[in-house]
Design brief:
Layout: H1 6-16, H2 30-33, H3 37-48, H4 56-70, H5 75-82, H6 86-100, H7 107-123
Length: 139
């Protein structure tokens, strides 16, 4: 009998905002988002630190870019979901590129941006103020 690790599936689902019955195999690359702390720290410092500068607009740029990626880079769908104009989505995605240096039209940058944005979503509370406590330290 093969046992599938439940903890990675639960942590990934929780960090991704998923609920209900979730199988690890259904999560695709999402479990990778919570792994590789050393690589994440370096990439985050290089690309995401500019988004941490104070300001609501930077949080909006980050959220818009993440939703844009989730909407398969469809401007109109993203704009409708965020209740903003199409040009607002284009502007924010361009600002994301300017601030982070990640050009999501390039596959490597797209993967890096997706990974870092999802990692931040999974490890930072909605307020964006501080990381969630380390779950391993609760035991």
């Amino acid at each position: 009998m093969r046992v599938v690790p439940a903890v990675p599936a639960l942590e990934t689902a929780d960090g991704s905002g998923l609920s209900g019955v979730v199988r690890l195999s259904d999560l695709g690359p999402r479990p990778l988002v919570l792994s590789a702390d050393c690589a994440a720290a370096g990439l985050s410092a290089r690309h995401m630190d500019p988004l941490d500068d104070a300001g609501r607009s930077n949080r909006e740029i980050e959220e818009t870019t993440l939703v844009y990626l989730e909407c398969n880079q469809q401007v109109h769908v993203t704009a409708r979901q965020l209740a903003v104009h199409d040009n607002t989505v284009r502007y924010r995605v361009n600002r994301f590129h300017e601030l982070t240096g990640l050009d999501i039209r390039k596959p490597e940058d797209l993967i890096t941006a997706w990974w870092l944005l999802n990692r931040r979503r999974a490890t930072v509370p909605a307020s964006g103020s501080a990381p969630l406590p380390d779950k391993a330290s609760d035991h």
